[in-house]
Specification:
The chain has about 200 residues and is an all-beta fold. It has a domain of about 130 residues: Sandwich (Jelly Rolls), CATH 2.60.120.200. Helices cover about 0% and strands about 55% of the residues. Strands 1, 6, 8, 9, 10, 11, 12 and 16 form an 8-stranded antiparallel sheet that branches. The termini are far apart.
Length: about 200
């Protein structure tokens, strides 16, 4: 992929962009979150993205977060439209006992968070982000071959031109090196639903 065509939303102080690898050094107190439960808004994480009007595609990226060590350190995939409409998928470090593999979907200024606990020894994760018009799917894999569904969602403002890519942040007093590689865009690997048919219109 042509990393030179990617655009920053909030460029970090330290980063490296190479043909086959991107490194982001996170800064303390950076995050993406809107309102729900915590009653605060944090919209200052660095985001690096491609733009597209393609309605059907899949984006794949490998993340290496071996250096993460503090609560909430995170890196992964993102589709950031604006401060109140975006989604992300990542692993967040929690403590020596577990991490959170999860996703956040933010529509019209309200975030949710869906997670599952994973081993703190897991330091590599692949993500597969797929679009079918204004519906989206996030999948993850430990080996880049066998993927598991994390999330299917609808983005209310996600029907037109979108931006998608990578992010990394450290919400608390921390900093770590996040490494992204093996990025590729393919035809949509999220197949059309072949189960129950839609309700017929009256």
């Amino acid at each position: 992929m042509d990393t030179g065509s990617m655009k920053w939303t909030r460029k970090p102080k330290e980063f490296v962009i190479e043909k086959d690898r991107i490194v982001i050094i996170t800064e303390p107190h950076t995050d993406l979150w809107q309102r729900t439960y915590y009653h605060f808004r944090n919209d200052n994480a660095p985001v690096l993205q491609f733009e597209t009007e393609d309605k059907f595609f899949t984006f794949i990226v490998k993340t290496d977060f071996t250096d993460s060590h503090h609560r909430f350190d995170q890196c992964g995939i993102v589709m950031y439209l604006d401060s109140e409409n975006w989604l992300k998928g990542s692993v967040e470090y929690e403590n020596d006992d577990f991490q959170h593999l999860g996703s956040v979907v933010t529509n019209h200024g309200y975030s949710d968070w869906a997670t599952t606990a994973i081993s703190p020894d897991m330091k590599i994760m692949w993500y597969r982000f797929s679009r079918r018009e204004d519906d989206y799917c996030i999948e993850c894999s430990q080996d880049g071959k066998n993927y598991t569904q994390m999330r299917v969602c609808h983005m209310w403002d996600g029907a037109g031109k979108i931006s998608f890519g990578i992010y990394a942040c450290s919400p608390e007093e921390s900093s770590f090196k996040a490494v992204f590689s093996d990025m590729v865009v393919t035809e949509c690997l999220w197949q059309a639903h072949d189960g129950q048919q839609p309700d017929s219109e009256a």
